[in-house]
User: Fold this.
Amino acid sequence: MIVMKFGGTSVADARRMLQVAEIVRAHRQRRPVLVVSALAGVTDLLERALQAARRGEVEGLEPLLADLARRHRWVATGAIEQGAARHDLNLAIDALFEDLRQLLRSVRVLGELTPRAADAVLSFGETLSARIATAVLAGRSIDAVWVDPREVIVTDDRHGRAIPDLDRTGERAEPRLRALVESGRVPVLGGFVGSTAAGETTTLGRGGSDTSAAVLGCVLGAEEIQIWTDVPGMMSADPKTVPAARTLERITFAEAAELAFYGARVLHPATIAPAVARRIPVRVLSSLDLEAPGTSIVGSTNAGAAPLAAVAWRGGVRRVRVTSRRLHMDPGFLPRALAAFDAAGMVPDLVVSSEVAVTLVVREDGDVERARHGLEGLADVEAGEPCAMLTVVGNGLARDAAVRGRVLAALAALEPELVALGGSARSVSAVLPADRIEDGMLRIHRQFFEEERAP
Ligand code: ASP
Ligand code: MG
Assistant:
């Protein structure tokens, strides 16, 4: 068995839905279980609807709902040829919207939004897309069957970021999905949604459909988990910044996690951690380019793996230097400085310290004033201008001093405000003014990731 997960952009319209059916058909032999996200943008719209309902804004709510309903009907109508099947699906969509309206009405009347009600509303996006996908597959002669994720994915009761219970999910999901697959059918589930043991609807946090896919892959002991998205895989850099960026054939879980932290998008590896822990191969694939091999996310690298994985960047940070009022010998200084930032709600992205000074990189919107206040009389706090952080990631940085040296030198040549080795030793970051990031990305990428030039 394999688990195939399609993200929001891969099911965004009728044409893409039909393409999903063709991709599934091509993988029929591998006995797929399907997981789909809500149509692109729908979860955001549902969140807006929730806020409008909470504020009692009827005028804001109705157009949003009408828009959402129109969009789902438009996809259903465009992707299903058979009149009767299309009619049935549109009735099902209407019924779901009626339920959604009721729920939002009760939020509006109460003027209060509980986490429980929020989850109930947010779950509609995935329910709608899964019902549509099931009908679209059936319309293309694939024997698909919708399975309500609330009947198989059991979570704790942390609404909005619920954590699946693998054992209980296994007990419910495994026999049911296996029986379906063995009778030649393709189960289709909405991602992102589960329920507590008591049967209350929960959601798994934004991006949670990847988690659903990973959890199902684990409990089914799947041969592979495929994450189908709208990019060719994990890349050596963001192609919007670096046109020469290339798709990585494989990347280790640790590198992917580090990249996500330092600004790469695509996939948040925390979502697939259970699968990686059980050594189930996870592959990111492009639903726009079916021939592309995608990127495998593996537990550890084999010998001969590239020492560097990718370069990433993210903005919205600033450098803050804290200098002790004592000029030397101030042993309690570092913990005190860190505690002041912690008390002000800031978790530094990087910390570089010496005996009497420490430089932190924190989010640009962090409350530096509060930290300064907390250190009054003990240390001076000087905040730099908003800037960005460029980070090179690769297991080779931890392993190979020569590689590390070359990367450090290349980053230093960008004349950054700060260069630092990440805590995991798998990354090196440079802090630069945002307007020098693009040039820096291009230069670093050219130097280490192009022309087969091994660093
Ligand atoms: N629809 C949810 C979101 O937008 C879950 C997902 O797509 O993974 O975050
Ligand atoms: Mg996603």
